[in-house]
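Troubleshooting log. The previous structure file for this entry was overwritten by mistake, so regenerating from the original sequence record. Sequence copied from the archived sheet and checked twice against the printout by T.R.
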Amino acid sequence: MMPDAWREKDERQYQHIKQSLLDEGKSEEQAEEIAARTVNKQRREEGITPNKTSQGTGNPHSRLEDRTKQELYNRAKELDIENRSDMSKDELIAAIRKANS
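Regenerated output below.
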C-alpha cells in the first residue's frame, strides 16, 4: 500500500523498481526498501518532499561542539577538508579548527 503522500506516478515507479530488483534476485524486503528510497529521493529532487537533512553549517556564533555532526560535515565540505565522510564528530571539529588556523 502506497503512502498517502505519494502520487499515482510515484506508486508506479515504486512497483517498477521493486519488480526489477526482485528479477535481479533481491529479497522482497531489500527490493521494497531500495524502491521506496529511490522514489523518495526523486520526490525530494522534484521539491515535492522537503529535504530533511540539514544543508547548513550551524550558528557561526555557537561552539563547534554544540553543532550537529551534519553541520560540522557541511562546514568541512565548505573548507574542502579531505576524508571528511570518514571522520567522527571530534575529528571534524579538529580538522575545522586546523583549517581555520
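Residues 23 and 52 are 32 Å apart (CA to CA). Archived copy saved in two places this time.
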